[in-house]
């Protein structure tokens, strides 16, 4: 039985690579935010707003919205008509294996599962496709830690 079936938390099978985290924060500037909310009190909204304020290009991905944070909102990753550097994920861990199948054809430079979001099956699927993954970290917190 998996951790999800028993209600137990899953922990990353592999530790996050500090060099990958640093590269994402310092070099990758176009970030698709999957699961972003229009509600300002949600973490997904606050993190995306912070990233935008700090010079990143934010691409909201939410099938229910037309625009978030003044940016055109896309229904899916496949609808984005230009390359993205990072896919930042705010979705339930159970949705991630299917989402990984959507991410792979987009070929981002990296995928980031936000704080509290871990799915080793999805992470392995992405890694096997040559796409590095960060799990269970907040990109906003890591940006502040690395760049102040």
**Uncertain segments:** 1-7
* Secondary-structure element string: HHEHEEEEHEHEH
What does the overall shape look like?
globular
* Helix/strand structural class: alpha/beta
Q: Report the span from N to C terminus.
A: 42 Å
Fourth-level CATH superfamily: NAD(P)-binding Rossmann-like Domain
Q: Report strand %.
A: 15-25%
At the first level of CATH, the class is Alpha Beta
Q: What is the CATH topology assignment?
A: Rossmann fold
Number of helices: 6
Domains (count): 1
Describe the protein in words.
The strands form 2 sheets. A 5-stranded parallel sheet has the order 2-1-5-6-7. The chain has a two-stranded antiparallel sheet with strand order 3-4. The chain is globular, with a radius of gyration of 14 Å. It has helices at residues 3-6, 18-27, 43-53, 96-103, 120-128, 139-147, and strands at 30-34, 57-61, 67-68, 71-72, 86-89, 110-113, 133-134. The chain has a single domain, classed as NAD(P)-binding Rossmann-like Domain (Rossmann fold), CATH 3.40.50.720. Strand 1 (30-34), helix 3 (43-53) and strand 2 form a beta-alpha-beta unit. Residues 1-7 have low confidence and may be disordered. It has 6 helices and 7 strands; from the N terminus they run H-H-E-H-E-E-E-E-H-E-H-E-H. By secondary structure, the protein is α/β, with parallel strands linked by helices. It is 34% helix and 16% strand.
């Amino acid at each position: 039985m998996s951790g999800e079936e028993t209600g137990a938390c899953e922990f990353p099978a592999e530790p996050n690579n500090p060099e990958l985290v640093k590269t994402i924060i310092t070099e990758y500037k176009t970030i698709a935010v999957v699961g972003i909310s229009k509600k300002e009190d949600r973490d997904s909204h606050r993190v995306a707003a912070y990233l935008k304020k700090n010079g990143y290009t934010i691409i909201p991905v939410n099938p229910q919205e037309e625009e978030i944070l003044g940016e055109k909102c896309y229904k899916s990753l496949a609808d984005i008509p230009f390359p993205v550097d990072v896919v930042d994920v705010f979705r339930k861990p159970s949705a991630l294996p299917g989402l990984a199948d959507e991410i792979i054809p987009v070929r981002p430079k990296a995928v980031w599962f936000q704080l509290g979001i871990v799915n080793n099956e999805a992470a392995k699927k992405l890694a096997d496709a040559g796409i590095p993954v960060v799990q269970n970290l907040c990109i906003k917190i890591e940006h502040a830690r690395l760049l102040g």
